[in-house]
TrEMBL record:
Signal peptide: none
Highest taxon listed in the record's lineage: Bacteria
GO molecular function: DNA binding; endonuclease activity
Domain Restriction endonuclease type IV Mrr: 1-43
Name of this chain's protein: Restriction endonuclease type IV Mrr domain-containing protein
A Pfam family matched in the record: Mrr_cat
Gene Ontology BP annotations: DNA restriction-modification system
Cross-referenced InterPro entries: Restrct_endonuc_IV_Mrr, tRNA_endonuc-like_dom_sf
Length: 72
């Protein structure tokens, strides 16, 4: 950060940050925001970016209890 004379930084990953990376951010003197995959999903939902609501129906166990095989 000092090399670029930056006041703050944002690091984004589609995975997670290591404990040492999180600890380094906490101990640092500059403001650094870490955004991981869960944060990305939360932001997408919050701002409704390329998201549309749908209704999902859950099928019961009935389709497992009866034998629907074709007998010849």
């Amino acid at each position: 950060m000092d090399k670029y004379n930056a006041e703050y930084g944002i690091f984004i990953t589609t995975s997670d940050f290591s404990r040492s990376a999180i600890e380094a951010v906490r101990q640092g003197t500059r403001v650094i925001t870490l955004i991981n995959s869960e944060d990305i999903a939360d932001l997408v939902a919050k701002y409704k970016l390329h998201v549309r609501e749908v209704t999902t129906y859950e099928l019961g166990d009935f389709y497992h209890t009866e034998d629907y095989t074709v007998k010849r």
